[in-house]
Amino acid sequence: MVTDLVNTNELTKIDPVFGQLSFDNHEQVVFCNDKDTGLRAIIGIHNTVLGPALGGTRMWNYSSEWEALNDVLRLSRGMTFKSAITGLNLGGGKAVILGDARTQKTPELMKRFGEFVHSLSGKYITAEDVGMETADMDLVRTVTPYVTGISEEKGGAGNPSPITAYGVFMGMKAAAKYAFGTELLEDRTVYVQGIGNVGEALVENLTNEGAKVFITDINSERLEYVRDKYNVNIYEGENLYSEEMDIYAPCALGATINDETIDQLKAKVIAGAANNQLANELKHGLLLRERGIVYAPDFLINAGGIINVYAELENYGKQEIVRKTENIYNTTLEILQNAETNDITTHQAAFEIAQSRIDARKTEK
Ligand code: NAD
């Protein structure tokens, strides 16, 4: 992978933005740089046909700028289809901040980032993602109104993660209904990979229903905390993909379903919160279908968070948030059945419905 931006030979070989595979007709990509605070961020605005591009900000210690660019492009594209399939009047966008959230995130850096968001005049609206907290969004709110996911004390809808987890739980139940004939998860073996904000809340939903839960994370303190709080098992093995399980729930980062893992997978259902779980949507979607593994499309079942933050823009309350999130169960079941009827992957089935909503709005305009 190319990391040295000064190497002009390499630059001529790979086009940095428009030539990226993940660049899929994005409307705008904004690079934000501030020497004083150390801010280096990229805002990706994929599509604004249905409304302003709303999507969270991720802070991650990327191994290269290319990795960060690829991530933001894939994530912002995913947001377009997530909002479209959920029936929200929002476009797709996302931001990444390059750096370690635990050591490099400062109030000054967050405010400076907020100023960059503000400079886009509402075309992009931010929220939290990996490495961000509600308190960070409160800081961004001091410099721009174009932010959601702010705390309830400050008039926001609060942390979206529990509602995201609830939506994932609904999607998982629908996939279980399709795969096993019952949506009850009691005694089902579920591996939750990544027990951060969403993963932990998913573990809570699962243990309340009596599922047998195994957890993994790169953060051993969190593992112990979640194990003790919910009385679940820490997975101690080397390779969770090859373990016997009913359901694999990826709740860390994307692309865990890839050339290396797909042949080993023993799960019958994949349903998790992580964005962009399929390293290659077409290829890996098809392989999952061939292997009879029921895949609940990520951008469909992890939409609880966007439903939650959308409430801040549309002024609807908790009851409507929960109603819309519970509807993920029905939509997931419909998509799984639709994929079977039309002999396409579940990802394609979800994607086509989302795309048709965008196309219909374009013709109205
Ligand atoms: P988080 O940062 O709170 O948690 C992520 C967890 O994954 C951390 O505990 C981290 O240590 C762990 N992790 C990282 N790499 C790992 C690996 N290789 N193996 C195991 N664990 C690993 O993030 P979150 O808010 O819980 O989000 C989780 C995923 O869900 C992300 O992909 C995010 O984009 C997606 N998502 C989140 C929301 C939301 O409302 N927070 C909404 C939609 C989608």
Automatic annotation (TrEMBL):
Residues binding NAD(+): G194, I195, G196, N197, V198, G199
The answer to whether UniProt assigns keyword Oxidoreductase to this entry is yes
Q: Which domain of life is it from?
A: Bacteria
Gene Ontology BP terms: amino acid metabolic process
The record's section on InterPro entries has:
Aminoacid_DH-like_N_sf, Glu/Leu/Phe/Val/Trp_DH, Glu/Leu/Phe/Val/Trp_DH_C, Glu/Leu/Phe/Val/Trp_DH_dimer, Glu/Phe/Leu/Val/Trp_DH_bac/arc, NAD(P)-bd_dom_sf
Q: Where is the active site?
A: K94
Q: Name one Pfam family in it.
A: ELFV_dehydrog_N
Q: Which UniProt keywords apply?
A: NAD, Nucleotide-binding, Oxidoreductase
Matching CDD domains, A to Z?
NAD_bind_Leu_Phe_Val_DH (cd01075)
Domain Glutamate/phenylalanine/leucine/valine/L-tryptophan dehydrogenase C-terminal, first and last residues per copy: 158-365
What Gene Ontology molecular function terms does this protein carry? nucleotide binding; oxidoreductase activity, acting on the CH-NH2 group of donors, NAD or NADP as acceptor
Q: Which family does it belong to?
A: Belongs to the Glu/Leu/Phe/Val dehydrogenases family.
Protein name, UniProt field: Leucine dehydrogenase
Source species, please? Answer: Pukyongia salina
